[in-house]
Structure formats: structure tokens, C-alpha cells
Amino acid sequence: QKEVEQNSGPLSVPEGAIASLNCTYSDRVSQSFFWYRQYSGKSPELIMSIYSNGDKEDGRFTAQLNKASQYVSLLIRDSQPSDSATYLCAVRISGGYNKLIFGAGTRLAVHP
Amino acid sequence: EPEVTQTPSHQVTQMGQEVILRCVPISNHLYFYWYRQILGQKVEFLVSFYNNEISEKSEIFDDQFSVERPDGSNFTLKIRSTKLEDSAMYFCASSEELLQETQYFGPGTRLLVL
Known about the structure:
The complex is a heterodimer of chains A (112) and B (114).
Chain A: E1 4-6, E2 11-14, E3 19-25, E4 32-38, E5 45-50, E6 54-58, E7 61-66, E8 71-76, E9 85-92, E10 100-102, E11 106-111
Parallel strand pairs in A: 2-11
Antiparallel strand pairs in A: 1-3, 3-8, 4-5, 4-9, 6-7, 7-8, 9-10, 9-11
Chain B: E1 5-7, E2 10-13, E3 19-24, E4 31-37, E5 43-50, E6 53-57, E7 65-68, E8 75-79, E9 88-95, E10 104-105, E11 109-113
Parallel strand pairs in B: 2-11
Antiparallel strand pairs in B: 1-3, 3-8, 4-5, 4-9, 5-6, 7-8, 9-10, 9-11
């Protein structure tokens, strides 16, 4: 069974701080990795995608991928209360036509 | 900005009844998906659809489930005889390409089976 693991949290950070969210995956040959944000009762909203080892930055968000360690992370700089949500890590696994395997998500709480 | 839409937003049904959940994917997208999320649990893949046929399905997607693209815009998920455990949020998603693609999710249909 190919798995995606995340710490469920909650991760509590003060406003303006850096939030660091982590994800590990079991399928060594996975190629595509995604971070989605999900507010309570809403659908997943794409934050970032990453396909190559290293860092990818988009505004306040940085995704980091280390395929050797089977690890992907998301950094949120200058965290805002509006960033409070559950962050879902999703992996497109090898051998699957196109399905995404999701982690259970990490709940982030940014307090003023 | 184009988006995936889903109807209805909420559906309440009696156990054993058939339900049809509807989705309109983003217009130039070719790949369509259904996922579900039971309250408090992970988002789970149900099925992917391309070129008018199922390309992959999960163990959850048994004979009670079917998908269809009845016209050029709609994509539907039918549950033939609903069970209590089918109560969940159902998300439709679409993507433009297969590799290195992004799947965009609709707002979801909350299904409650009584």
C-alpha cells in the first residue's frame, strides 16, 4: 500500500512566523508532488506543485523536495491568520494512471 | 478564472436510493476524476476518466458506482443503491494533461445517506 504521511498537528505559530509542514511518502519512484490547502468544509485548493529535487518558491510559499529521503515540505513565510487551514500533501504515484494519494493533512493555526 | 463546478452542493437521500452527482470540468481539460472525503478522514481517489472511458478506479469504486460523460460538458457520478457508509463529501477534479499536471477540484457535493 503506497502511503503519504503527515503530522496531523495542530501546528500553532504566531502571526508573522514561518510555518513548516512536512510530508513523507513510501513510493520511491513517485514523480509529482502537490500541496493543497483545505479550509473546513471546503474543497482542496492547490498551493504548489513540485517535480524536481530542491526548492520552489511562489510568493510566501516554498516547497522543498528530497526524493532520496522521500520527503516533501512546505514553508509558509510571514504566516497570517488567514493561512489557518489544513494542508494536504498529495503524491502522484508511479503505476497509477493519474491518481493522487493524499496524506491526512496537517492542521495549521496562526494566532495573532 | 475557469473553475470546476458541482451540483448539488448538498444531497440527502435514503439508504438504497440512487443518486447522481454532477460536475462541469474546466472546459479545455481532458482528464476527469472523482474523489471522496469521509468526515475527518483523508481525501480518497475513486476513479479517473479519459477519452470516454475509465482509466483507473480504486477498490472503493465497486459495481454500485458508475461514471458518465453524457455530453460535452458534464461528468457524472452515479451511486446505484446508496449505503450509510457512502455519506461523504464528493469532489470532482479535472486536469489538462496527464504528466506533470495539476488537478483542480470543484467545491464538492456533501452526500448524507439516512
